[in-house]
Amino acid sequence: MMSKKQVLMAFKKRGLSISPAALNAVLNLLSYSSSSNDDQHENTKDDTSMLNSLLDEIKIRLMESSNPSLVVSRELLEQVVAGMTRDANDVMEEAMQLLDLNNGVPKLHYDIMKKRFSLVAPGSGRQGGETPAGSGGLFGEAEDKVDMFLQRYALIYQRLMRQENFRPKLTSGVSYHPDISADDNDDDDYDGYNRSQDEHVKITPLEGLLGSKGTKILLGMIVQVEEGQYYLEDPTAQIPMDLSRIEFRSSGFITENSICLVEGETQDGILVVAKIGQPIYETRHDAIQAIGLQNSDLFGAIPTLSEYSKLQEEEIKHGQDAMFVLLSDVYLDDPVVMTRLEKLFDGFQDYDPLPVFVFMGDFASRYPSAAESNANEIITGYFDDLANVICKTPKIATKGKFILVPGQNDPGIGGIMPRSQIPDYFTSGLRSKVKNVHLVSNPCRLRFFSQEIVICRLDVLSKLRRDCLVDPPPLSMGESGKSQDSQKQQKLENTNPLVQHAIQTILNQGHLCPVPLSSLPIYWNYDHLLRLYPPPDAIILGDKTAEAYFETYGDCDVMNPGAFHTDGSFLAFSPVDMSSGTRKADCEFSQIE
Length: 593
What we know:
Helix content: 25-40%
Strand content: 15-25%
Number of helices: 17
Structural class: alpha/beta
């Protein structure tokens, strides 16, 4: 074992001093290491090697520190040793972080006057008008509803103003009249707007229509002020619309409360719409560059670019073996479903590391009426049965991770989004038998290393179709998919064009379900939980009104595992796949008979 003098000398050679408490800790560490080996010569070599590794890591930590010190404290030493002794399981444990309605998702706020972003902590109120409304309670005030729609508009407006075809060219005096063609669907163009080097699209505020003539391009939200009459509204004014003479419409669903680019002319106080389309999509990389890493990190886990780079390195090193097994509509009251779950767990119990199981509701085909005397016991029994099935594979029960996302009909306050977690009362037996069960709200967000994944159980396709005001144009099979590799090609070619329209709608709108509040009530204070700006790396969407699919739009992967109760279909999702030499996601559709 090395002496105290030798340890002090080793630190001195590196230009470091060490506190007495830290020195004693180093000596104890070396003593513990030497006690496992009886060979004195080998002990000396091992001690020297360990001390050198420790000093190397300390130097790295001090260089990265914003306030470096030449004196090594016990606290710094403990951090270094903890980092050096991390194994793959520790890394995977730290790689995952959940945010939902219960633990609070910060709100990205854009001040349209100051052109400034800020990340507002949950429950923050107004501060001199610089932060959004909100008392932090579940039910907001009237100003929260106004702020909800203003922020939806502001986030899309600033996004458009940074696009090249919407930025004025200082050297050009040419006015621009957009030529829209449905044949051009490149991501760099707004749904068919042909862009010229010396031309730009000028968006006219609605108040600017007063007394003006000719065709104008507008950005606004479609609202229904009076029954049967739709208006276009922006922060300055509103004007009734005539949608009967539309010559062109872009891909995606145009619904009430969606924000659209409109080209038209005012006739007798009515805006006659000739062309209408979705806002242009902005990639996650471009959005984060514009917003800033500090304001886009909802999880508070990536404070600097260097930390972001480190996470990406660890993601490639440790994340390739990670897998998420996705199931939706897991009816625990159906014996066939329970049998399928047994087969599922049996098939994955030998995996190392074990996958993360994401179960989305509804968790019963029919719940008992509240009037029934034993209703609570019946519902509790469903989750107890799930616990019993999981416990048949002890490894999964002790080491597996489960994320339970409620459906609209599951116990709790349903019908309003975001929907809170399944009450603890019903899952106490499950949580006592299965070690790692996370009950989350719907939707929720998951951080996996540097990636952000949104998980939501909502029948988006049926809601968008029901509230659609303008029929979308026809799409060819697989048109919107951008990642057409051999493993996904067959699934993409069979994707329903309506699903492609739905995916484009939610990502272009930056919202999980941009439909009127009468169709999908939302807590005004927590609308930001449903926003998709900046776009996440992946969206896991449980939608029983659509078939299973995996699509990539822009740089965002969107997937639906299908309804497990119908044919036993589920999806194995790998966020990190390096088989092609570049980092991307991969998936595999499976089925249990």
